[in-house]
Design a protein that fits this description.
This protein is an alpha+beta fold. The protein is built from 15 helices and 18 strands. The longest helix is centred in the C-terminal third of the chain and has 17 residues. The chain is globular.
């Protein structure tokens, strides 16, 4: 059974501007060749805002760079208006997360960078620059330098520089994530208004974000990506404009749905509808190691206590709102609870299992014992380290040896991050000791032995 389920929107009948045709992307060579995107098929149509969501590591920014021509795919092709699209394209512009302004240039001069290589006359160039500056709300700041502007105003300069070329497609890579909440909300509202009133020349917008609320508010289409490797799990229509307000029941229900999709990465997604459950189970593929969420034990404990104070169950959206956490920060915590058997997710809610409740009620030492049992039973990397220690005559195993095994599944950088997480969890549980100066794992205590030989790879992987 295919993992990707695509929900087409029959109401989107605009001209296809850009197409991804079975895009794949690999990094590295030989044994260390890692696939980061798999079989991506996506059409960008005229008249729509497409929002791309997904957890960290799903390849959202990699996909954006390929679609915009900044990076080449390893397989497949990108078509712009039916023709092969390779390299930079004057009909495509990008706004990045960082402002990327030249501090020694004025607002006018920074916007002018966007048209320096154009064929416009000096008069046409000036007219275009002033029009972009006025459209994006920077009129009166033409001679100001970036240091004189607030964060929101600096990001407006980035938008003006992208729009001055009058692109057909505008890509935005988390453009609001570095702004404070009020500034970001105001800028999003203004951009949506400009888009709705057709005051910006762009025919389509592709927005990459980690903010589910933002996606539901802005998206005519919502594309949810999965990981390991990056793939499209959902391609669905957004809500009608009148239902996108944050306090509207359908907005809240769609946010819950998307949280459910993203916290169940190994399940086939059911289409969003009034009576449809979030997901249907599918057995995950066997892999040597799970993908460990990069969270500290203290963060896991904090979430357990937060849920316990709410009668052991809470809406994920409410948890994120109350803790002021974006989805990229909250999802790894929820995944850690699930992986360790301390919690689970059901229809947009996260709840504590009986073991999780016992962990919440326990004292410090008993918590360590519970965590030790859960980590040893459920975390394949920790089990592999313990087995390696027990199998060695000196009860020692080197970091480099574990890393070499992991590089068959992960990039070197990600394998190192996975090991760092396992070390944090294993030390807290007192399962093993690790000498950072020598790069050596060793037995923590005779009391805590490894599982019997052969067990470390038998449990099923979870993404």
């Amino acid at each position: 059974m295919k993992q990707t389920t695509k929900t087409n929107n029959p109401d989107l009948r605009g001209t296809v501007l850009l197409s991804a045709d079975n895009i794949s992307k690999f990094y590295g060579e030989g044994r260390r060749r890692i696939q980061v995107l798999r079989d991506i098929c996506l059409d960008i149509r005229e008249g729509e805002i497409v929002v791309v969501l997904g957890p960290s590591g799903a390849g959202k920014s990699t996909l954006l760079r390929i679609l915009s021509g900044l990076s080449k795919p390893s397989g497949g092709r990108v078509l712009f208006r039916g023709e092969p699209h390779e390299g930079p394209n004057a009909s495509i512009a990008i706004v990045f997360q960082t402002f990327a302004l030249f501090p020694w240039l004025t607002v006018y001069e920074n916007v002018e960078v966007g048209v320096l290589n154009s064929d416009l006359s000096e008069t046409q160039r000036r007219r275009s620059i002033l029009k972009a500056i006025d459209t994006i709300g920077l009129d009166g700041f033409e001679d100001a330098y970036p240091k004189e502007l607030s964060g929101g105003m600096r990001q407006r300069v980035g938008f003006a520089r992208a729009l001055v070329v009058e692109p057909e497609i505008l890509f935005m890579d988390e453009p609001f994530s570095t702004l404070d909440v009020l500034t970001a909300e105001n800028l999003k509202k203004e951009l949506l208004s400009l888009w709705a009133e057709r005051k910006i020349p762009t025919k389509a917008v592709v927005l990459v974000t980690h903010n589910i609320d933002e996606a539901v508010t802005m998206g005519d289409r919502l594309v949810v990506m999965g990981t390991d490797p990056g793939n499209i799990r959902v391609d669905m229509p957004g809500l009608p404009l009148e239902e996108r307000a944050k306090d509207h029941p359908e907005h809240i229900r769609m946010v819950d749905y998307l949280y459910g999709v993203m916290t169940n990465p190994s399940e086939v997604v059911a289409p969003f509808g009034p009576e449809t459950p979030v997901a249907m189970p599918e057995a995950p593929a066997l892999r040597p190691f799970q993908v460990l969420p990069h969270v500290e034990v203290g963060q896991i404990t904090g979430l357990v206590e937060r849920l316990h104070s709410a009668n052991d169950r809470e809406d994920i959206y409410v948890v994120g709102r109350d803790l002021n956490m974006e989805v990229d920060d909250l999802l790894p915590l929820v995944q850690a609870l699930d992986l360790l058997g301390l919690g689970d997710v059901e229809e947009g809610d996260v709840f504590l299992t009986p073991v999780g409740v016992r962990f919440a009620d326990a004292g410090l030492q008993e918590r360590k014992e519970i965590f030790r049992d859960q980590a040893r039973e459920n975390v394949q990397l920790i089990r592999a380290i313990l087995h390696g220690i027990e199998s060695d005559i000196a009860n020692r195993i080197r970091w480099d040896d574990v890393l070499e095994d992991m590089e068959r599944q992960f990039t070197t950088e990600e394998a190192e991050r996975q090991l760092d997480t396992a070390i944090d969890w294993g030390r807290y549980a007192e399962l093993f000791a690790y000498d950072d100066s020598d790069g050596v794992f060793s037995r923590e205590s005779e009391e805590y032995s490894a599982p019997p030989e052969g067990e470390e790879g038998e449990s099923e992987a979870e993404e």
